[in-house]
Amino acid sequence: MKEPDLTDVASPGPRDVLATWLLPALTLILQLATYAGYGYFRDELYYLANGEHLGFGYVEHPPLIGVIAALVRATLGESLFAIRLLPAIAAAATVFLAGAIARELGGGRFAQVLAGLCVMLAPAMLGVFGVLTMNAFDILAWAALWWLVARYLRTGQDRLWLWFGIVAGIGLENKISVLFLGFGIVAGLAVCRRWGAFRSRWLWIGGGLAGLLLLPHALWQVANGWPTLEFMRNAIAEKNVAFSPGGYVAAQSLNTFPALPVWLAGLALLLTGRSARRFRPLGWAYLAILGVMLTTNAKPDYLLPAYTVLFAAGGVALERLRPRVVRAVARGAAVVFLIGSGVALAPFAKAILSEDTFVRYEHALGVKPPQGERQTLGRLPQHFADMHGWPELAEAVSHVFQGLPPADQARVCIFAGNYGEAGAIDLFGPRHGLPKAISGHNSYFLWGPRGCTGEVMIVIGGRRDELASHFASVDLGATFTCTDCMPYENDKPIWVVRGLEQPMTAVWPRVKHYI
User: Fold this and answer.
1) Cα atoms in the Cβ-side hemisphere of radius 13 Å centred on 254
2) For residue 147, which of 199, 195, 105 has the smallest C-alpha distance?
3) pLDDT value of position 375
4) Distance between CA 217 and CA 62 in Å, rounded?
5) Are 512 and 225 in contact (CB under 8 A)?
6) Domain limits, the chain
7) Within 10 Å of residue 402's Cβ, how many Cβ atoms?
8) Is there a contact between 138 and 171 (Cβ–Cβ < 8 Å)?
9) pLDDT at 2 over 50
10) Which residues neighbour 149 within 8 Å (Cβ) at sequence distance 6 or greater?
11) pLDDT tens digits, one per residue of 304-348
12) Angle at 460 between CA 455 and CA 465, to 5 degrees
């Protein structure tokens, strides 16, 4: 039997409401019903601080997340619900786009629903959309770009590259990794000899628009000595886990496990299916992006946005299986496996169980989430541990602050060892009367000492002997302890130091820590 043509696409009808609208709505409900977790995530505190220092960039990333944080605080506030609402909406929008991509690839109702379910239930995606980070909006931007390319490959409408450039430019202002997608698309088109795309002026206009939108951040990088490159070098050398190619692929399998058979089928269809010949560049684009990730020691979750198109293609592949009995069995097995495994693994992605219950559940299943950083862990994975201890840290610092004489309280500054600690002081400190924190970590370094003279300081962490080499006196104010936080945040001394022996302007360049 001749393989069906995947290039003829019908507009969604009333019977497609599940894939088009209901599934995205259910995704939004799922995310909002489980939004609270264990509390604020370390990076969320940092991004909220970014929102108080708007500019054309930050040490690790472009400016959009700071703008989003500022808008959320100005309109909705800074509660967990407020800051996690937009990522939840991004999840729903990505599910919608996954169905739209499947439709562009020739998929019917089943393919669209299956693609949406994969986005909804893949553990890493479920977790990413649960917190305010760049990654949620990065996945959404990639999904929109995959849809535009799929539509171009189906219709040949050159002007779609104009929209591709606009979306890519906005995506680049959120996260530079959109460049990986751009490289993958170019590589896919070249491998498949789609030279017509390169001859279109619209592709070059779109690329120019993307560059123009990124230009303010690029100029900011130049003006600040390319801090992101320094950050990336340090992260690769000192922080990120170095995966072997096999280990990296294994991490991908675990991140997407319930959807693994679906996206493998999708990749096979895009690379070898005769009916998908027109969409072959999408399969090669994924392989090109994977190759870049492997050669740059990228974290496994950086590849996550590449799977939306494979989920869509996988839905099409299962929908087109022959004979009919094989198709029926494969469809049913895929849906049951996806939903069953997705529900079973959901506690590893979102904090929906108590800490004690999660530890027992993890032990019973024998599953360990992939670790992307070289950190000693406690009993919780890092993405859960980083949701613990922040209000308590601000309270502990407050006790030290309240013990100072009024004259010292008026001039004291608080130095934090990393942006999580600094962000906690910035968010929770005002209710205790604390001043904003300073730090040498990443963008906090660029924001400077905020008028701190070093006459009196509260320092979170550090060793007495190191501090004594810079200050006239060093006294232990308290020791901060936390349950289930990252081990390096536990049993942390909080010092009161006085009499900085050099001007702050001379000391500040030496506290820079980009990682």
Assistant:
1) 17
2) 105
3) 84
4) 6
5) no
6) 16-355, 390-511
7) 11
8) yes
9) no
10) 160, 164, 185, 281, 282, 285
11) 999 999 999 999 999 999 888 888 998 999 999 999 999 999 999
12) 75
Q: What CA–CA distance (Å, rounded) separates 193 from 297?
A: 29
- Residue 80 in contact with residue 36, Cβ under 8 Å? yes
Is residue 172 predicted with pLDDT exceeding 70? yes
Q: Would you state the structure tokens that stand for residue 469, as one six-digit string?
A: 């080499």
> Which phi and psi angles does 492 have, rounded to 5°?
-95, 125
Per-residue pLDDT, averaged over 148-176, amounts to 98
Place of tokens 């924190």: 437
Spatial distance between the Cα atoms of 278 and 299, rounded to a whole number of angstroms: 31
Output the CA–CA distances (angstroms, integers) from residue 282 to 139, 164, 167, 185, 187, in the order listed.
16, 15, 18, 7, 10
The b-or-e profile of 22-39 (16+ CB within 10 A means b, else e) is ebbebbbebbbebbbbbe
Q: Tell me the percentage of the chain whose pLDDT exceeds 90.
A: 87
Region 359-382: mean pLDDT is: 88
Question: In 76-159, which residue ranges form alpha helices assigned H by DSSP?
Answer: 80-104, 109-121, 123-128, 134-155
Structure tokens at 293: 């990730």
The two tokens of residue 217 are 């951040």
> Other CB atoms closer than 10 Å to residue 170's CB: what's the count?
17
What sign results for the dihedral spanned by CA atoms 134, 140, 146, 149?
negative
The tens digit of pLDDT for each residue in 442-497 reads 999 999 999 999 999 999 999 999 999 999 999 999 999 999 999 999 999 999 99
Contacts of 505 (CB under 8 A, 6+ apart): none
CA distance 265 to 250: 17
- Label residue 254 by pLDDT band (50, 70, 90): confident
